[in-house]
Design goal:
By secondary structure, the protein is α+β, with helices and mostly antiparallel strands. It contains eleven helices and eleven strands.
Length: 394
């Protein structure tokens, strides 16, 4: 039988001692990314959020650390484990969802399809520069009228001699306005195909989306393709159909399951510190029962979320992870993080709505993460199909 826990023997920042589940390489990578976030993201991210910008030089700094396409092998990529990639996502999103989104889009949505489905020439041309952060990518799947049902896209690609000609538009595209290359998914006579499109190609345009109140430290754009002419070798040769874009989304959703734990952790830690410093009625508010309940609920949620993420990471490294498992992580960890952020905002009171603290920024960002790369409802139906065998999509 276990005895009573001595006061001070529990680390409130790692209540379940989850560090013990990581090996030395995992911890070294995590701590390296955490220092990068502390030194280069946190001092300025509130200003970036307020200004609605993402500094392009951060991309090269991420590349220098090996964070871009880090879970891929060769072509300048680090070739880390899935768990290590996930831990990097956790630390980046503890800084800001925009930082994790940049790395996720670059590595999982843009580099991954070239790596998995591209020709050797495409891989050699694009991947080394993208891994270094010298070239920035974006992923064009979502359209204004085609979100949760991407197969209903209207963007098309037709043959004209040896060339391809693309027409259409894409919406809500992270990195769109700063990208050097776009992975565009379009309907062809043979099915949905992916195209590697240099953004300086005539007919390609990007318009940044204004007035965002979420993911402000991130570039979000509309892409317009007006008779964009591409050579025959611009198409990704290794995949036809929705398997292509959906496999990319699965890679990115895996990173989200880890990343949002970082955002939730940052909110919990801000609330815990604030509750210990803020005094009312002659004592810190951390001493009041209702505040302790909120802090405990947040702590339990963050630890549970990291356990889920680590388990998914071990499964991915073992080759047993399925897209349905990833939906479990995306669904539960994102809604967990949003609940933690909202609770933390309440603990901070009026201070919770200022950018002097990270909570409102994370809370607003998580509203986007809750929706993108599969809404909460879509992942619910994926899991419902998995456990009942009944397809509720149609």
């Amino acid at each position: 039988m276990s005895g009573p826990i001595a006061p001070g023997s529990i680390d409130p920042h790692d209540f379940l001692a989850l560090d013990a589940l990581l090996d030395d390489e995992d911890k070294l990578l995590r701590d390296t990314v955490r220092r990068f976030v502390s030194d280069r993201i946190l001092p300025d991210v509130a200003a970036w959020f307020e200004a609605g910008e993402f500094p392009r030089e951060i991309a090269k700094e991420m590349g220098a650390l090996g964070l871009l396409g880090m879970h891929l092998e060769g072509y300048g990529c680090a070739g880390t484990t899935a768990v290590q990639y996930g831990l990097a996502c956790t630390e980046l999103e503890a800084g800001d969802s925009g930082a994790r989104s940049f790395a996720s889009v670059q590595g999982s949505l843009c580099m991954f399809p070239i790596w998995a489905f591209g020709s050797e020439d495409q891989k050699a041309r694009w991947l080394p520069g993208m891994a270094a952060g010298d070239l920035i990518g974006c992923f064009g799947l979502t359209e204004a009228d085609s979100g949760s049902d991407p197969s209903s896209m209207r963007t098309s690609a037709r043959r004209d001699g040896e060339d391809w000609v693309l027409n259409g538009s894409k919406m809500w595209i992270t990195n769109g306005g700063i990208a050097d290359v776009a992975i565009i998914w379009a309907k062809t006579d043979d099915g949905v195909r992916g195209f590697v499109v240099p953004t300086d190609t005539p007919g390609f345009g990007a318009n940044d989306i204004p007035h965002k109140l979420s993911l402000r430290a991130s570039v979000t754009s509309e892409l317009v393709l007006d008779d964009v002419r591409l050579p025959a070798d611009a198409v990704l040769p290794g995949v036809v159909g929705m398997k292509g874009p959906l496999s990319c989304l699965n890679e990115a959703r895996f990173g989200i399951a880890f990343g949002v734990v970082g955002a939730a952790r940052a909110c919990y830690e801000a609330a815990l510190a604030y509750a210990g410093e803020r005094s009312q009625f002659g004592r810190p508010i951390a001493g009041f029962q209702l505040t302790q309940q909120k802090l405990v609920d947040m702590m339990v949620a963050v630890n549970r979320g990291m356990l889920v993420a680590l388990h998914l990471g071990r499964m991915k490294d073992a080759g047993t992870l399925t897209s349905t498992h990833v939906s479990f992580g995306k669904l539960d960890n994102v809604r967990m993080a949003l609940d933690v952020a909202r609770s933390a905002r309440g603990v901070l009171g009026a201070n919770g709505i200022t950018l002097e603290y990270p909570v409102i920024r994370h809370m607003n960002n998580l509203e986007s993460v809750y929706t993108y790369e599969g809404t909460n409802e879509i992942h619910t139906l994926i899991l419902g199909h998995a456990i009942t065998g009944e397809n509720a999509f149609s």
